[in-house]
Each structure stands twice: as structure tokens, then as C-alpha cells.
Amino acid sequence: MSDRLLVLVRHGQSEWNLKNLFTGWRDVDLTEQGIKEAREAGRKLKAQGLTFDIAFTSALKRAQRTLGLMLEELGQTNIPVIKDEALNERDYGDLSGLNKDDARAKWGEEQVHIWRRSYDVAPPGGESLKDTLARTLPFYVTDILPRVLRGERVLVAAHGNSLRALIMVLEKLNKESILKREIGTGAPIIYHLGADALVASKLDLAA
Predict the structure, then answer these.
(1) CA–CA separation, 1 vs 6, rounded Å?
(2) What are the binding positions for substrate in this chain (predicted)?
(3) At what angle do helices 32-47 and 61-74 cross, to 10 degrees?
(4) 119 among annotated binding-site residues
(5) 75 marked among binding-site residues
(6) Are 181 and 164 in contact (CB under 8 A)?
(7) Are 72 and 64 in contact (CB under 8 A)?
(8) Beta carbons of 154 and 188 less than 8 angstroms apart
(9) pLDDT of residue 18
């Protein structure tokens, strides 16, 4: 019987998470807290007795470093790692690098809320969640899912919005439900899939 194991983990706290800045594709590192969260995620997976055959991450260092720290804790630093921009965070365009409070002062509370929490309205020069889904889901379907269905045990370290794309499909959520879904930093979500690619079981290891 195949494991068909897929584990999703959002990167640990980043420097700009801490400073309340829109990050998007800006390549910032983890904070000390983020490093602790990543290591703790690895320890939680090890405590579940899990091992992996392959890992996927984005082109951004906060996700890559989170993955590296988890694999250190698992004693699995030698497994193949595939990095791809398809798993990058949503691009916040002109909001990138701005303090969220400053953005509200510039564009207004309501407009910033719409950009952050609507499904298909993009900030200036950036992506909506719908745009993020449009690049993340095809990569999942062509590169990640076939490996899971072949019985490979797959670990994905990515970002809040790119993971929302995967969770939307896995959990069959609509566009309203996925917007409300919060994904904690460094909190693994463990899925076992059936042969039909549907979720057979789910375990959320959020603290």
C-alpha cells in the first residue's frame, strides 16, 4: 500500500513579517523566531515518524531556508530538492516593501483590504490570489501530484498564498473559504491521498 504522502509547510517568520511589511517576491531571510519555527516543524515531522523522497520549494530564500532546516532536523539533507518560481509567494507589486499601515494611509483602509482579501483584484503591478493560483496549480498537477500518486513521499515548503492554491484544490474550498483560511508559519499540514488524488486523511500540526 502506497503512502501517497504530501506535507505542506509555510516558511517560518521572515524579517518582513516581523516588520509588518508586504513581502511578495522580495527575497528576505528568516528571523531568529522563523529559524526556531522551521526547526520545530522538522522535529514535529520526525516525531510523526515521517521521511521523504523529494522536496519542493520556491525560488525565495525564506522558503528554501525553512526547508533546509526541516531536512536537517529530519536527517534527510541528501534528498532531491526542486526549486521553482511557481511556488513563490503572491507578488504584491507596488505594495512590496511598504508597511501595511503606511499602505492604508496612502490608499485607504478599504482599498488595501480589497487587495489583500479579494480573490481576483490585484494590487497595482502585482498578482491577485487568482493569478497566484493560475501559476501554482499547473505546477502541482504536472510536477508534484504525479509523484505523490506514484507513492513518493513529498515535502513542500512555500508561502501563505501559494499554499492556499494547493489547499484550495486538496480540500475543495471555494474562493470565499480559501480567503479566510489562515496558514501558520512553520506549521506542517500532513495529507495522505487516495489513488483518486483526493484527500484520504489530514493532520494539521499547528501548535
Answers:
(1) 15
(2) 10-17, 23-24, 62, 89-92, 100, 116-117, 160-161
(3) 40
(4) no
(5) no
(6) yes
(7) no
(8) no
(9) 83
49 labeled binding residue: no
Domain 5-204, CATH number (from 3.40.50.720, 3.40.50.1970, 3.40.50.300, 3.40.50.1240)? 3.40.50.1240
Q: Coil, helix or strand for 96?
A: coil
Annotated catalytic residue 176: no
The secondary structure element, H or E, covering residue 45 is: helix 32-47
Is residue 111 marked as binding? Answer: no
The cell for 81 is 530538492
Catalytic one of 37, 40, 89, 127: 89
The pLDDT, as a whole number, for residue 179 is 82
C-alpha cell at 89: 509567494
Q: Which residues of the chain have pLDDT under 50?
A: 1
Inter-residue contact 164 to 129 (CB < 8 Å): yes
Angle at 32 between CA 180 and CA 84, to 5 degrees: 60
Q: How far is CA 30 from CA 23, 134, 164, in A?
A: 12, 27, 21
What pTM value is reported for the model? 0.94
* Helix count and strand count (H, E) for the chain: 9, 6
The one-letter amino acid code at 127 reads: E
Q: Is 11 a catalytic residue?
A: yes
Q: Which residue has the cell 497595482?
A: 124
Residue 89 assigned ligand-binding role: yes
